[in-house]
Design a protein that fits this description.
With about 160 residues, this protein is an alpha+beta fold. The chain is about 20% helix and about 30% strand. It has helices spanning about 50-65, 75-85, 145-150; strands at about 10-15, 15-20, 25-30, 45, 90, 95-100, 105-110, 115-120, 125-130, 135-140. It has a four-stranded antiparallel sheet, with no helix packed on it. Strand 6 and strand 7 (about 105-110) form a beta hairpin. Helix 1 packs antiparallel against helix 2. The protein is elongated and about 65 Å long. Residues about 1-25 and about 30-35 have low confidence and may be disordered.
Length: about 160
Amino acid sequence: MAGLDCSVVTVDQPTTLHIVPTCEAGLIRALPTLTGMDSVRPTLIRHPSSAYLIVVFAALCMTAAVRAPWQTVVYLIPIAGACYIARTATLVDETGLTARALFGSQTVRWDELRGLRLDSSGTVYAVDTHDTQLRLPCVRSTKLQRLIAASAGRIPDPAAEPQ
């Protein structure tokens, strides 16, 4: 995925994609909504279920520290961790990309989406027409293909061959 850091996907015509080798901060441009485009099936990209093992391990380790009934308050830490894992996700649906956090969520509609920005650590950001960047939780450069597939063609695949 290192090739994604310095390519910008542009659209000349609704049916033709070109990958232009420029370094515009690793931005992958979004396609305009085209008529006849497949509908987006709601997809939730979230943390793997194995992340709960860390929460269970932390709770077991804290059990050794609990000596009095008032010390059971330390169990709020793994409970907060489990809530974070359960709530944090990126939702791809008909309206656009929604970043869900522990408290609240933000949406970038498809018509406002300018593209995606990938940074060197693999974090993926949705960039809107006002150049506001929204970090997409649970989406890394390794899960970019799943995000592209869920967008039903609204986000082009930079690894695909130009037609």
